[in-house]
Amino acid sequence: xxxxxPILELQDIIASDAEMxxxxxxxxxxxxxxxxxxxxxxxxxxxxxxVLAHRKRxxxxxxxxxxxSRSKGEYSQKVLLDKIAFLQQERPFWSWGKVITYLQNxxxxxxxxxxxxxxxxxxxxxxxxxxxxxDKNRRTLSGTLYKKVELLRVIMQNKDILFLDDPxxxxxxxxxxxxxxxxxxxxxGDRKTVVIAYAPSLAYYRVVDLQMTISKGRIVRVExxxxxxxxxxxxxxxxxxxxxxxxxxxxxxxxxxxxxxxxSDRSxxxxxxxxxxxxxxSDRSxxxQRNQRTQ
Length: 295
Known about the structure:
Blueprint: E1 8-16, E2 21-29, E3 34-38, H1 45-52, E4 60-65, E5 68-69, H2 77-81, E6 84-87, H3 99-107, H4 114-127, H5 143-157, E7 161-165, H6 173-190, E8 193-197, E9 210-215, E10 218-223, E11 228-231, E12 237-239, H7 244-276, H8 280-294
Parallel strand pairs: 3-8, 3-9, 6-7, 7-8
Antiparallel strand pairs: 1-2, 1-4, 4-5, 9-10, 10-11, 11-12
Helix pairs in contact: 3-4, 3-5
């Protein structure tokens, strides 16, 4: 992951909003990877995502895009924003128009005709079993269906960097799994970058390359899923914690192995007892026979 230059880099960033102060002294984002920013509600996930996506200006510090400094004006913010697709957490008020038209417009560009964009949008709806939504007005959609359409819009835009803020809240597991597989293939095939801000773990879906845990506006842990992590902004390596369910499962397995071992020992002892111990009744019978011969 570190063999290439980062596409985005945060340096000594301090940013704030009405509820949170964010302090990130070093963070790098590389192409061809999926990042997961996790943490409790109100920990600063959304604020960090907005700073990375240039939707919120930091109070202090610098952001580098492909090694060029924002504070020094070495790159155009407009050029960078044209390479970004952003899924916001809140549903905007101005949602109108047919779903198919909305996705078609998201996929259009100077090199793609309206007809091709329309067909790609229909194929995408069909792939995610949402073709029935094509002619529906976005304003009439439920919150769940609306978010699914927004997630498809991000794909249709075909940008280099995708920022997804709380993308899977309220969605069914089947859709989440299918979407994760899709973006994983897209990232690896096209060298795109995806940054997801989402409180629950995504380990089950095996889509994440690097997970960052944020607490009270600071990144407190960076780790690869199932591997080693760095705490305190990269100072002091330690093993990543096991999920609680995994600990219970391993404890249960150890208990079962111990019970089987003890049961096996008892069984072997039971098999040895007839050979090593004579029944008491047999001893009395042999003693009686000796007494009769003596008499």
